[in-house]
Specification:
With 68 residues, the protein is mainly alpha-helical. It is built from 2 helices and no strands. It is extended. The termini are far apart.
């Protein structure tokens, strides 16, 4: 392994540890009753940014398993 490979691997490990630490801090800072609302809002914003808009749902007749 070259020194660049070693440095890249160490940087990836440091980033992963920082991400875990940041998530831990965010979990402690956000009250339980708001977590689900914040998560849903985040997903909606990501979908909107990706150009997905509202999901298109269609009704499916029957509630059983598909027959083969």
């Amino acid at each position: 392994m070259s020194w660049k490979d070693i440095a890249a691997a160490q940087l990836a490990r440091i980033r992963a540890k920082l991400d875990t630490f940041n998530q831990s801090l965010a979990d402690k800072a956000l009250p339980e009753d708001r977590k689900s609302r914040v998560g849903k809002l985040s997903l909606e914003q990501k979908a909107s940014a990706a150009g997905q808009g509202e999901p298109k749902l269609k009704a499916v007749k029957g509630g059983g398993r598909a027959k083969h």
